[in-house]
């Protein structure tokens, strides 16, 4: 089942991407508001990622996972790098300008 945190992140990222698209058409300093929205979304995502989900009930047998923080940081860094890679591919490949070559006549 989808949790509340996931829905919050979906709404935040959807709004930020739409604002980024809207503000990218403006000129001047207002064009940078879209980048600011994406930066705010990244900060909110990182805060919600590391925010504790609740109080852990006491148990008799506690298993300590000492590599949890390392794995969480690794997955976070890999996720950010994946996002950066997708952005780079979109900017340099999808948005690449293609020009039509002139058609030469068959006869002179």
Fold and architecture overview:
This protein has 108 residues and is an all-alpha fold. The protein has three helices and no strands. The chain has two domains: 1-52; 65-96. The longest helix is centred in the C-terminal third of the chain and has 27 residues, at 68-94. The chain starts with a helix and ends in a 14-residue tail after the last helix. The mean pLDDT is 83.
Task: Throw out a few tags for this protein.
108 residues; mainly alpha; 2 domains; 60% helix; elongated
Number of helices: 3
- Largest beta-sheet characterization: none
Helix content: 55-70%
- How far is it from the N-terminal to the C-terminal residue, by CA? 69 Å
**How many structural units, i.e. domains?**
2
- Class by alpha and beta content: mainly alpha
In terms of DSSP E residues, the strand content is under 5%
Would you list the SSEs in sequence order as H and E? HHH
Instruction: List how many beta strands DSSP finds.
Output: 0
* Shape field: elongated
Over all CA atoms, what is the radius of gyration?
A: 22 Å
Mean pLDDT: 83
Low-confidence residue ranges: none
């Amino acid at each position: 089942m989808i949790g509340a945190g996931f829905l919050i992140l979906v709404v935040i990222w959807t709004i930020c991407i739409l604002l980024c698209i809207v503000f990218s058409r403006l000129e001047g300093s207002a064009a940078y508001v879209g980048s600011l929205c994406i930066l705010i979304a990244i900060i909110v995502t990182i805060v919600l990622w590391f925010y504790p989900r609740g109080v852990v009930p006491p148990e008799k047998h506690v298993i300590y996972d000492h590599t949890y923080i390392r794995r969480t940081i690794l997955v976070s860094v890999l996720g950010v790098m994946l996002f950066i890679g997708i952005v780079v591919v979109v900017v340099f490949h999808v948005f690449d300008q293609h020009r039509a070559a002139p058609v030469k006549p068959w006869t002179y």
